[in-house]
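Friendly challenge for the regulars: who can give me the structure tokens for this chain first? No prize, just bragging rights.
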Amino acid sequence: MTNSIILLALAVLPVFVLGIYVYRKDKFEKEPISMLFKAFFFGCLSVLPAIFIESWLSSVYSLFGGKFLPGAVEGLYTGFVVAGFTEELCKLLLLSIAVWKSRYFDEYFDGIVYATFVSLGFAGLENIMYVFGQDTFGASLATGSVRAILSVPAHFLFGVVMGYYFALAKFQPEKRTDNIAKALIYPMLLHGTFDSLLMVPEAMGVDGTIVAVVFFVVFLYFDVKLWKIGMRRLRSLQEMDGSNAGYSRGNQYSNPDDDGSSSNSNTMQDPFTGFNWNP
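First reply, four minutes later:
Bragging rights claimed.
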């Protein structure tokens, strides 16, 4: 019983901490707790279709000769298609169902709040499944510790990026299709890169070799950059809401530059335009 409580705490604590973090970053109008629970619950629900789709995509790969392809191909396919595409698609769909028409979704930063709570719901349930799915208590502790440091924060950051473009889609209807596509594609690419850097060496059977070490070093570098990408998105929407704070509710989401008001012109730009690996 004690071991189960320890493992459950290990699985949910990083989710709880990151949820509080993004909630406190919502400076202008806090979202109702009921809506946050709804987003979190829908994130948990998104795990169910993801499991079935991932299982089907894995079987399709094997059916069409996946066993005869190089291990690196399997790692990339699993990282980008099975995990990245499927999980981010399911999260985006459930996010849309949960909050798109909500009257509480009335600020740019709300997109990040709701998307991260959906992502944390997904990550929380997935984390519990991984932690309690190990054969021994020691293995569960190791799995939970690694996922607390890497996997749960990664899902949080994918949610930040998704929420950024989800908010732009909501409040910039003239670019809605483009931003909805970005709300899926960019988190999928980040998710796929994150997973593939870990999965490719394993699929190639080179664990413990210099090749695996190189992949892990690149993974750590990417993880640092992922945090910087997420924090830039988060600050950007905070600035956009701050610029709009003096506007009436009726025209709150018009472009401040249209009437000559001062604002940061970079705020409205796609942060991935001209993207490079520099901080």
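Residues 6 and 91 are 28 Å apart (CA to CA). DSSP finds nine helices and no strands in the chain. Your move, everyone else.
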